[in-house]
User: What shape does this take?
Amino acid sequence: MTETLQETVEAMCSPGRGILAADESTGTITKRFDSIGAESTEASRCAYREMLFTT
Assistant: This one.
């Protein structure tokens, strides 16, 4: 069990990888969208999250 956990940690922390926090609040994701000039609607936030997990 310890070896499996260690392997998982090493895979998650390898160069070029990280942990995605996909539970952003509406306020946080609105700031992200505002910074790129995108409208933050329920539909656009849903499409953004869908894109994150399907591409």
About this structure: The chain has one domain: 1-54. The two ends are 31 Å apart (CA to CA).
